Amino acid sequence: MNRFSAALLIACATFGANAQEQVLNLYSARHYQTDEALYANFSKQTGIKINRIEAKEDELLERIRNEGAASPADVFITVDAARLAKADELGLFAPVKSKLLEERIPAHLRSTDWFAFSTRARVIIHNKDLVKAEDVQNYEDLAAPKLKGKVCSRSGSHPYNLSLMSALIAHDGEAKAEEWARGVVANFARSPKGGDTDQIKAVAAGECGVAVSNTYYLVRLLRSEKPEDRKTMEKIGIVWPNQKGAGAHINISGGGMLKTAPHKEAAVKFLEYLASDDAQRYFAEGNNEWPAVAGVKLQNAALESLGKFKADALPVATLAKNSGTAQKIYDRAGWK
Ligand code: FE
Fold first, then answer.
1. Are residues 319 and 198 both part of a single domain?
2. Are residues 112 and 159 both part of a single domain?
3. What is the CA(214)–ligand 1 centre distance, in A?
4. Number of independent structural domains in the chain
5. What is the pLDDT of residues 290-315, one digit of tens each?
6. Considering the chain, what percentage of its residues have pLDDT values greater than 90?
7. Backbone angles phi, psi at 290, to 5 degrees
8. Are residues 126 and 86 in the same domain?
9. 3-state DSSP call for residue 127?
10. C-alpha 12 – ligand 1 centre gap (Å)
11. Is residue 15, in this structure, part of any structural domain at all?
12. How far is the centre of ligand 1, averaged over its atoms, from the C-alpha of 19 (Å)?
């Protein structure tokens, strides 16, 4: 075979593959063990191959913006309502009309442009020797003068804290929310630093008495076989906040179809697939979260050991909407 015919053969083979193979380009901020099964199952069911680009949430968002109309991305998956809202505000998502998604995903866990596929709660954790559970039953309690020098926190600019503030703005109003932020800042044991796991460890070590954390970080430590992680969790009490009021603040992971998606049909199929019972199990389980779809059962004893609680029913789209105001309040309050 001469060089020309070899090249032709390769060209034909490539063309043949492209013509037959349906693909979906997924930009994902997820990177969990269960994801392999999650995606393989979709390809098996639909024959659509998934090309995955994985990176940090904000990097992916930046990348989609930079790629503009030429972006190969069909679906963007990320965590936190504020981040999804940012993508939405930038006009990156296309509205998806799907009866199936409307039936499966509760109304407060979706907008017209994006859908939540799992939920996590932001809970109060306390060192059982230093702070009594009864003193920290509500987020609002974290501003009480009796907790002076006892509160640890991650940055106020982090999306998790922005979304929590957004919920407080919605429930208590801007003025009260700012008063709260100032009270919490006055109670700091140290300047904000680290992630949620760092706060959990600092609370267990007694460096502070109380902090807030997303539930999946706690479940991750509960499932850990490392002796030091077990010791950490033995020191800590977990409080479902605001159970007599609005309920514990809920955040989400989710995604949507991009406006410039080259494979729109495959994108909608994929979003619908994520709402199926099987996919919900993989999706939530991958990060020790709860499925967004009601009635899907997980096999996760550690997650289940957290028990039942009242979740804030505030639409996640509202969290997204208040996120700019939330940042301004943290800035004014000096919550770095
Ligand atoms: Fe996280």
1. yes
2. no
3. 7
4. 2
5. 999 999 999 999 999 999 999 999 99
6. 85
7. -100, 145
8. no
9. strand
10. 45
11. no
12. 39
Residue-range definition of the domain harbouring residue 261: 25-118+256-298
Q: In terms of domains, do 234 and 324 share one?
A: yes
Question: What percentage of residues in the chain have a pLDDT greater than 70?
Answer: 94
What 3-state DSSP class applies to 252? strand
This prediction has a pTM of 0.90
| Residue 2 resides in a domain | no
The answer to whether residues 193 and 325 belong to one domain is: yes
**3-state SS assignment for residue 140:** helix
**220 and 291 housed in the same domain:** no
Residues in Cβ contact with 272 at an 8 Å cutoff, skipping those fewer than 6 apart: 98, 100, 101
CA dist 246 and 314 (Å) reads 8
| 220-227: average pLDDT | 97
CA of 198 from ligand 1 middle (Å) equals 12
Q: Is there a domain that residue 7 lies in?
A: no
Query: What is the Å distance from ligand 1's center to 43 Cα?
Result: 28
Ligand 1 centroid, distance to 217 Cα (angstroms): 7
Mean pLDDT of all residues in 70-95? 92
- Ligand 1 centre and the CA of 86: distance in Å? 17
What the block records as the tokens of 147 is 């907790």
Please tell me the distance between residue 87's alpha carbon and the centre of ligand 1 in angstroms: 18
